Amino acid sequence: MALAELKAALPDYAKDLKLNLGSVIGNSELPEQQLWGTVLACAIASRSPRVLRELEPEARANLKPEAYTAAKAAAAVMAMNNVFYRTRHLLSDPEYGTLRAGLRMNVIGNPGVDKTDFELWSLAVSAVNGCGMCLDSHEQVLRTAGLGRETIQEAFKIAAVVQAVAATLDAEEVLAEA
Q1: What residues make up the catalytic site (predicted)?
Q2: Which residue ranges form the domains of the chain, and what is each CATH number?
Q3: E strands of the chain, at which residues?
Q4: Which pTM value belongs to this model?
Q5: Choice among 75, 131, 155, 160 that is catalytic
Q6: 115-148 pLDDT, tens digit each
Q7: Which of 55, 75, 134, 152 does the annotation list as catalytic?
């Protein structure tokens, strides 16, 4: 099981991450599709080859093909949107907010899965990428769709833990080479 391998690879100083990884994935109250789509999208967003290699097979096994593709699409489109909208927000000139984005993002309107699932994955990726505008936008859509704060928080808890595991394992790999 890839989850067990990731936990075993974490150093002793990251014991909290081991426990949290098992908890946010193993004890999640999210439905399987929401859970594994979030895990896959966050593993991609973490930019860690090792984390993606370990978590992808289990995500693929737990997702229907259209959900697997949609989770990857959420990671892809949000990689672009998070940079664009975060930059637009951080610039002190508000005129950028009046300009047409001019970026294709059709997958958001037609993701091939339940829109709520796609929005949840987009929110989680936005958490990894730190885009406040995207977080607010996706959170509002999810709340309007009837998702509770606990469910939404579950997605960004997964994002936080997957990102922390990725950062820790990637750092350990570099330190081992030194």
Answers
A1: 131, 134
A2: 14-177 (1.20.1290.10)
A3: none
A4: 0.95
A5: 131
A6: 999 999 999 999 999 999 999 999 999 999 999 9
A7: 134
